[in-house]
Design brief:
- The structure is a single chain.
- This protein is α/β, with parallel strands linked by helices and about 350 residues long.
- It has 2 domains: about 110 residues, Alpha-Beta Complex (Aspartate Aminotransferase, domain 1); about 240 residues, Aspartate Aminotransferase, domain 2 (3-Layer(aba) Sandwich).
- It has 9 helices and 14 strands.
- The strands form 4 sheets. A 7-stranded mixed β-sheet has the order 2-10-9-8-5-3-4, with helices on both faces.
- Strand 6 and strand 7 form a beta hairpin.
- Helix 3 runs parallel beside helix 4.
- The chain is globular and about 60 Å long.
- Bound molecules: pyridoxal-5'-phosphate.
- The site of pyridoxal-5'-phosphate (PLP) has 11 residues, from helix 3.
């Protein structure tokens, strides 16, 4: 039976990406060799790296003066690389969830951190109001809070350069990259298998801190070497290229955004009009179109495990909410078809009829 894959990450990838990656694992670029057993310095792999960097620039309309890197270490490594490279004295951070919290913890190792807003006391169920002072080196925020289902689907207007963790919503909307000193995103949601992180960094923003930066943690090392200072994670980069090609062929991020909005709209409507389910994020402006979090109303609460089983029997997988939140989370990343949303909405309606 076909599965409807709602996992939050690693998560659904397009069949195009999976099939082409599987083929390249057997025979890469007609070399008669696997992608897994060739030099990353071969002209065939260099072409993969070059095209992947170029497509990121094209799809997100990255202006001149920025470099695109593909590094290992996950988005979590960026929590320390960002302040290591960019924090001179003080930075502003917005606390919107576990990942933002982790980023704040790392930044504190390097300087003063002004937490300009937090919704922690309310279980991170909304995007807090915030004001960013002018005297900070940068303002860091998490555009999509994967665990809590909140999202900032815009580039905030602040007077300082921004840094954003876009791990779980990159390529779901156009971004005004010129407002940022850096954007980073782990690949394992909207792009590729785990193992690579995209970093878009403004070249001019580098080299202004006094501290010594270990070679591998210095963005300049990777910028200078075209993201090939050391052996890059070749397989996820190859997969990323397949996804990026598909995104371009589909018409780019505006087209993806429309598809994502339609999917999320349909699911939120089903939740809001239900007598049994209710959304955990109540302000529509704060609702994520990537991760839709919902629970059963108090009078039905004990039915939650039964619904997961009921949906599972229809091939719906990955809807259990994060362990810190409970309930349900349906992740609607770019590769998820509308057909899967329809299957979930139908399962919700049929389950309600039963009870
Ligand atoms: N930031 C966000 C928004 C995430 O959703 C995640 C993982 O789910 C991370 C950071 C951590 O990413 P990684 O596991 O690649 O370090």
């Amino acid at each position: 039976m076909k599965k409807h894959n709602f996992y939050a990450g690693p998560s659904i990838l397009s069949q195009y990406t999976i099939k082409n990656t599987a083929d390249a694992v057997i025979n890469f670029a007609d070399m008669g060799l696997s992608l897994l057993e060739i030099s990353h310095r071969s002209k065939e792999f260099q072409a993969v790296m070059d095209e992947a960097q170029q497509l990121v620039k094209e799809l997100l309309e990255v202006p001149e003066g920025y470099s695109v890197l593909f590094l290992g270490g996950g988005a979590s490594l960026q929590f320390c690389m960002i302040p290591f490279n960019l924090l001179k004295k003080k930075a502003a951070y917005l606390d919107t969830g576990t990942w933002a919290h982790n980023a704040i913890k790392e930044a504190r190792i390097f300087g003063d951190v002004d937490v300009v807003g937090s919704s922690e006391a309310d279980g991170y169920t909304y995007i807090p109001k915030f004001e960013v002072p002018d005297d900070v080196d940068y303002f860091h925020y998490t555009s999509n809070n994967t665990i809590y289902g909140t999202e900032m689907r815009y580039d905030p207007d602040v007077k300082v350069p921004m840094v954003a963790d876009m791990s779980s919503d990159i390529f779901s909307r156009p971004v005004d990259v010129a407002k940022y000193d850096a954007i980073y995103a782990g690949a394992q949601k909207n792009l590729a298998p785990a193992g690579v992180t995209i970093i878009i960094v403004k070249d001019e923003a580098l080299g202004h801190v006094d501290r010594v930066i270990p070679t591998m943690l210095d963005y300049r090392t990777h910028v200078k070497k075209g993201s090939m200072f050391n052996t890059p994670p070749v397989l996820p980069i190859f997969s990323a290229l397949q996804t990026l090609r598909l995104y371009k062929e589909m018409g780019g991020v505006k087209v993806l955004e429309k598809l994502d909005l339609d999917k999320a709209g349909k699911l939120y409507e089903a939740i809001d009009s239900s007598r049994m389910f209710t959304g955990t994020v109540t302000n529509p402006a704060d609702r994520s179109i990537m991760n839709v979090c919902f629970v059963m109303k108090p009078e039905y609460k004990e039915l939650e495990p039964e619904f997961i089983k009921f949906a599972g029997e229809r091939g719906i997988v990955g809807i259990k909410g994060h362990r810190s939140v409970g309930g349900f989370r349906a992740s609607l990343y770019n590769a998820l078809p509308m057909e899967s949303v329809d299957a979930l909405v139908e399962a919700m309606a049929d389950f309600q009829k039963k009870h």
